[in-house]
Amino acid sequence: MTPVLQARGLGKKYGRRWALTDCDLEVPAGHVVGLVGPNGAGKSTLLNLSVGMLTPSAGSVEVLGGPPGAQQAKVGYVAQDAPTYARLSVADHLKLGAKLNPGWDHAVARRIQRLGLDPKQKAGKLSGGQRAQLALTLGLAKRPDLLILDEPVAALDPLARREFLQDLMEAVAEQELSVVLSSHLVSDVERSCDFVIVLVDSRVQVSGEIDTLLATHFRLTGPRRAAKDLPGDQHVVTESHTDVQSTFLIRTEKPILDPAWTVTQLTLEDLVLAYMASSVPAQPERPVLEVQR
Fold it and tell me: What is the pTM of this model?
């Protein structure tokens, strides 16, 4: 199946500064994908390149099997600040959306009635949550094959955030569309996504279905030993040591048979933070202190 989003060596430069460098990424179809990473990782730049709002300085990006500019009718986009036109009413936004998008679905657009939005209300008078819901309605009524959301709930209060994500999940079930949701809030990803990509310093640290990743990552705690002494099928993501104890976060698809280890399952937050930390140069191990007798 053709990926809905694919980047190869993708980069974007502003003057002398690279906002995104050498990014390789593949987003599968049929998933709600959480794109997570720290601020400055390049998430927004990547998504702006993906919808054709920016042009690459290096490498390439394909959306739905073609260049971004050729796929605009098939892609819905809600930017980070849920942009709307302050002087236009809610109804004006929907009329504009219908005029600009041949596949406009008026039935989907009528969701604003269920949300309690006044069609006559100017967008500049709406709350942050209401503007986000209006922007989501515009994106969904386009009937896209791919919906891209760039931290759409970052500025919302917890209740508005929950309502937005619940509405998104209902729309995904009804329209069977692919979604890429950029966020730095792991709780939002855990609530709404089934696939995660961790992006740090423009590079994908890990990607995959969340259930599979959680089933193949473990924390091992036990007597101190070096990473090189672990079985070859246990890939070390992070490690820490005291004088007598070692803790490893590993990825493996095989059973952990060493009885010396205490094995702990990870949460999604544990996993994401571990891969963020693994991109930082490791500190030298503390030497083992020999006790003089």
Answer: 0.86
